[in-house]
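Weekly structure sync, notes
Attendees: PL, DS, HV (note-taker this week)

Item 1: Antibiotic biosynthesis monooxygenase
DS walked through the input record. Source organism listed as Chryseobacterium tagetis. Sequence as pasted into the shared doc:
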Amino acid sequence: MKKINLWNKIIPIIIITFMTSFNIASAQNVSEERITMLVTFNVKAEQKEALRKALIADKNGALNEKGNISMELFEHKDKPNTFYLFERWDNQKSLDEHFTKKYAKDVLESNKTALTKPMEILYLHDVSPLPKNEIKNPLSSDTPVDLVVIFKVKDGMQETFINQFQKSIVNSRPEQGNIEFFFHTVPGDNTKFVLYERWRSQAAIDFHFAQPYTKELFEMFKSALEQPIEEYLNFINEIGYTKRADK
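Item 1 (cont.): predicted structure, written out as tokens:
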């Protein structure tokens, strides 16, 4: 009788079981990853107020959802018909649940008639995320200055760009006048990056711009960016600030 080596049968089963468990764990890790989004709306002038109300309702509703980390609504300072939603969610499941809400559906429905072009959704990867309890809020005495920058970087300069911003994150967040400083890559486009900054006042951002590490950034921009930095700066005003109940 031919001898059967049981290990030849057992080992493949062990490997398959391990790989299946690994794949399930990997899928769970992906599904549990924080979701960060920047959504841009370019609205028709006659539809502006209706969309503003829908966006405020969406933002306020989201802030009461368990899976929401933050939801901020902005208007472009120089382009009054442009709105931005900057939102963070615990995971994809939380975002999917948000899209089932009436206030979210109302905003999605507006995409059909209220906008001059389809809303742009950028899914972002936060290079240096903060825990919920470390995300700061404006004080009642603040007059916040907000800035969103959507960079287009020359191919080959990505690593230099990220490394310089990692240094800037470490130095900028501890500044007394800083509220938020988040730098993101854009999955699917390795030449696009997004920066969101919030400062307690104009004096605070002026102080930031005068710091050596910020000057290093602006020097790097000269060789790294496709266009002059001025082309990418978007100063924005928050609409309907609401502090989360759990913060």
